[in-house]
Amino acid sequence: MADFHQNGNIATLHNLRTQSTDELSYELETFAQSRKITLILPCLYSELEGPAMPNILAELSKVTYLHRIIIGLDRADAEQYRKARAFFSDLPQNHIVIWNDSPRMQALGKRLEDLSLAPMEPGKGKNVWSCLGYLMACADSAVMAIHDCDIVTYNRDLLARLVYPVAHPAFPYQVAKGYYPRVGDGKLNGRVTRLLVSPLLIALKRVIGDRDYIDYLRSFRYPLSGEFAMRTGILPDLRIPSDWGLEIGILSEAWRNLAPQSVCQVEIADVYDHKHQDLSADDASAGLSRMSTDICKAIFRKLAADGTVFTTHVFRTLKATYYRCALDLLDSYYNDAKMNGLTIDRHREEQSIELFAENIMRAGQIFLENPHETPFIPTWNRIHSADPKFLAEFKAAAAADEAEFA
């Protein structure tokens, strides 16, 4: 995707294939002397047994500019935590595995429950939120990055390009969002971005009119990518969604808190492939069905907060408009794939569109029936205000878990 197009809303930083990974890494080593860089890896224990993580660790072992790596480990028992620590032990960087299911962490979670400040549900959002809390407790990093742990096409160039815009002292960016083409096994992937988010934003613009927020989201080439880099000064007030709206929620927080000149997107990979979710057409609580509903709710909530009035009639019109927009885009995706020697199963793509159309209505109905729903985890500033000792004790609990299982 080597071009130099700018959309006029946020900066797009391209990979023009004129700078090597070694050259970028050398510059990042220089930047890191005055602004330390931390990487956060939110992962499930099952991902340690998958095909992606061994290669990710091998690539990260070559990275010389990281000050610390924070691994948030979900769905692990004591023996699995011990194995996870051994798995990550070859990393040459300072690192810690935070066992989110440990008795100590559960006790801290109960403390937050008593204050009505606990995350609503387990998942990636809670995992990222916990890792950010540990990072803030350390209070020694100026830049942080997050990427997924199931990237089967991972190489260290991805991290270097992701971090560079916010690590460069002369750049104004507080947030960098990664983008890439989703291609794998001879297919065009990225169904939720291609078949839900892109046509939904077009449909919203037609139904409710011009909104700066819609133009902002449409500026991102891959709004659902799990790769972010940020300057740590914005983290204490960052509201993390607890559901599948995490990526849209973080972009919305950047929109709420920062000037457009402080946000950029950066091309971080030529090819990107990772674990694929099932469509789960028969189970609205799982897979892409649950994900699509949560993403729609996140967008609707943000537009409502900016003054948009939603009714059942609006959602019906939006569903019909979305369906037409999605089918039109499907033709473009099909032709694009065909020209590049890739395949698209049009029947399954249209099945996805039909499901997403129903979930737009489902998300709208949930929004109308629960207008006060706030699926955000409280900010760390609020946690600190309610319990000033919590962050320090959270960091101590992570250290105690490590010591016990050393």
Automatic annotation (TrEMBL):
Enumerate the UniProt keywords alphabetically: Transferase
Q: Name one GO molecular function term.
A: transferase activity
Which InterPro entries does this UniProt record tie to the protein? Nucleotide-diphossugar_trans (IPR029044)
Q: Is Transferase one of the keywords?
A: yes
Q: Which domain of life is it from?
A: Bacteria
Q: Please give the name of this protein.
A: Glycosyl transferase
Q: What is the lineage of its organism?
A: Bacteria, Pseudomonadati, Pseudomonadota, Alphaproteobacteria, Rhodobacterales
